[in-house]
Structure formats: C-alpha cells, structure tokens
Amino acid sequence: MAPPHSPRRARIAFSDSAAKQLENLTSEAEIHALDRALVVISVDPDIGEELPGDSAGPQLRQYTDEVERVRLLYWVTALHTVVVVAYIEA
After folding, report:
1. Cα separation of 18 and 25, whole Å?
2. What b/e string do you get for 52-76 counting C-beta neighbours within 10 Å, with b at 16 or more?
3. CB 83 within 8 A of CB 72
4. First to last CA, the chain
C-alpha cells in the first residue's frame, strides 16, 4: 500500500506588477520573507482574508505574515492557481 500523499500545493503565478516588484528585491532577507509567505498560500490558498469588492472580478485576498512583515495581495483561480497581484512589505 502506498503512503498517503500530502495535499497538492497551489501553483503560484505573478501579475506584471508583482513581477516588477520581484525584480527590485535585492536583499536575501526580503527574498526569504517572500518565499515563506508564498509557501503558506500555496499550501492553503484560502488562508488570506477576503478584501471587500464587487463580484464582477476575481475575489482579492490579503495574506499578512506579521513575523516576516510581508503582505501579499492575490486571487485564486478556479483551478487553484494563486495569482499574486502585489507583494507589499508591511
């Protein structure tokens, strides 16, 4: 009997504006903080709080990691791909 598999992680994609923010990361501490937050939302995309908005577009979510001082704005597609709209240092 095969061992049980852990739940599949969501795929992470970046909007153009988030990709530009990534290009500007220079310190190892910033990269580590972002990586940690991305792992958290890839394991549980629903962890972030829903932001108020209309139902016409995707439901934006916000995940804040108080320890690493990182905030991510993202939305989750129907296929559970997490699209990061913005990476914001808190």
Report:
1. 11
2. eeeeeeeebbebebeebebbbbbbb
3. no
4. 46
How much is the pTM? 0.81
What is the C-alpha to C-alpha distance for residues 44 and 27, in angstroms, rounded to an integer?
26
pLDDT tens for the chain, 90 residues long, are 555 656 678 899 999 999 998 888 888 988 899 999 999 999 999 999 998 877 777 889 999 998 888 999 999 988 888 899 888 775
Could you give the C-alpha distances from 28 to 2, 72, 84, in angstroms and in order? Answer: 38, 18, 20
Q: Which amino acid is at 54?
A: D
8-state DSSP, 69? T
- Max distance between CA atoms of the chain, in angstroms, equals 48
